[in-house]
User: Which sequence fits this backbone?
């Protein structure tokens, strides 16, 4: 395969990018100058070295030091409300909630959603790590908020997670809530504005 097609096929693996868009990316790169390409390559190479996955909530964060591992700034912030754990699908949802400034508890990032009829749920989302975290922090956590989008697959994911965590929640007297219906159907959390997120959070049940 020639470089143009090869690169296009790599871009087509990106989330939400189809084959037509991936070819547009390649043509866009062909038009840019050498300095842009050099900077782009440098940043991509640096990404794995400078960004780390939080050992607790599993979000990606920029490391202050070169060594791997450790907790992100949110998890290690002693000022956060440790009685609340919000479970989100992806980093960009967490970012949207943080930007809205309406939530001051901790998070857990599932890292995906469950396709309906998925036979191996544990391969699609971090359900095992979530259960471990709940057990480990059961003394602190009083409420688990399932913050999934209002789409069939997201609602399916929330339902699955709820069923999995109920035994631990009941044993440790935790409440399990979901965001209120301030979110309109089909909306991704990451595209919701601050007021909508606040309303959904206040309306949780
Ligand atoms: Zn974290």
Assistant:
């Amino acid at each position: 395969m020639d470089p143009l097609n090869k690169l296009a096929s790599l871009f087509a693996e990106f989330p939400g990018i189809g084959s037509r868009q991936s070819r547009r990316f390649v043509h866009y790169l062909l038009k840019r100058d050498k300095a842009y390409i050099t900077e782009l390559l440098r940043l991509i190479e640096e990404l794995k070295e400078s960004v780390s996955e939080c050992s607790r909530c599993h979000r990606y964060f920029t490391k202050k030091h070169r060594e791997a591992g450790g907790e992100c700034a949110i998890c290690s912030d002693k000022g956060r409300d440790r009685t609340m754990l919000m479970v989100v699908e992806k980093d960009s949802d967490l970012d949207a909630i943080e930007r809205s400034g309406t939530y001051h508890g901790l998070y857990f990032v599932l890292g995906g959603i469950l396709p309906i009829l998925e036979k191996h749920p544990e391969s699609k989302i971090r359900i095992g790590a979530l259960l471990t975290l709940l057990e480990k922090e059961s003394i602190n956590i009083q409420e688990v908020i399932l913050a999934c989008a209002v789409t069939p697959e997201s609602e399916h994911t929330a339902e699955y997670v709820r069923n999995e965590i109920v035994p631990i929640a009941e044993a440790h007297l935790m409440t399990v809530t979901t965001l209120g219906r301030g979110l309109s159907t089909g909306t991704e959390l990451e595209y919701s504005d601050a007021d909508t997120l606040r309303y959904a959070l206040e309306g949780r049940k």
The chain has a mean pLDDT of 90. Strands lie at 51-53, 60-62, 81-88, 105-109, 143-147, 175-178. The domain at 3-48 is CATH 1.10.8 (Helicase, Ruva Protein; domain 3).
